[in-house]
Amino acid sequence: MRYGDAAMQLLRAETTGHQLILAEAKDDAALAEAAVAFGQPDTEAVKQSKRLRWVHLDSAGYDRFDNEEARAALGKRGTPLTNSSGVYAEPCAQHLLAMMMSLARRIPQARDRQIGDHSWPMMELRAENYLLNGQTVLLLGYGAIARRLVELLAPLRMNLVAVRRRPSYDETVPVITEDALAERLPLADHVVNILPANTSTRHFINAEKLAAMKSGAILYNIGRGSTVDQAALLDALESKCLAAAYLDATEPEPLPPLHPLWSAPNCFITPHTAGGFIGEKERLVRHFLDNLHRFIAGEALRDRVF
Question: CATH assignment of 5-83+277-297?
Answer without folding.
Answer: 3.40.50.720
